[in-house]
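Hello,

I think I submitted the 2'-deoxycytidine-5'-monophosphate job twice by accident. Can you confirm which output corresponds to this input? Input:
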Amino acid sequence: MEKIITIDGLASSGKSALSQKLSKKIGWPWFSTGVLYRGMAYVGYIEKFDEKKYLSFFKSKDWFIKLTEKKSLFFYKGEDISSKLYQKFIDEKASFFSSYTLYRKALIPVQRSFYKAQKGLILEGRDCGSILFPSAPLKIFLSAPDRVRAKRRAEDRKEPVHAVLQSQKNRDQRDQNRHFAPVIKPKNALCLNSEEYSLNQIVELVYEKAIDIFQSKT
Ligand code: DC
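Support: Only one job matched these inputs. Its output is below.
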């Protein structure tokens, strides 16, 4: 059985917080796939990549991602550029970048290669359960009302809620309506509204489910 848990949902639905805690509890690494889209969009923007350049860059050794307990880090030319990737303008750039089918398709094998059977993996993003690992034994789909999600990001970024709400709406629309790999509830996914639980409750719930399915206290 593949030792994979996928956690999908729209922006600020609570995916990273759950993944991070679950990873610690279960002992599997976690991969925030959004950092890949953010990193590519950022480098492409500063280096002024065209389509051809992007496609060759995906295969180059100029970048790599390192999974750590706290977050997934993106390195470019040996430098950890992760802290640059969570600015407002990169939210937008990454959202546009991720709507290109050509780029998404090219990045599928890249993301799949992070799974090493002996270690297990938690993947968090938008299409982890629907496209990357549709046969994952445990798939979670997280949701939360728009206002709740915007409030979380506003607190994180120290920005006004109304401004976050508007840009969140635009990104949600792109995420849900893109031609290839839109955000959907993956088949057989467990749907949870993160507003209805505390973080610890949701971690416990998913952990119990994981133990049940994978039948080993890893
Ligand atoms: O989860 P995040 O906010 O870091 O994601 C950044 C962007 O990447 C966001 O616009 C959605 C996109 N994304 C995606 O399209 N598919 C994924 N599996 C992960 C992220």
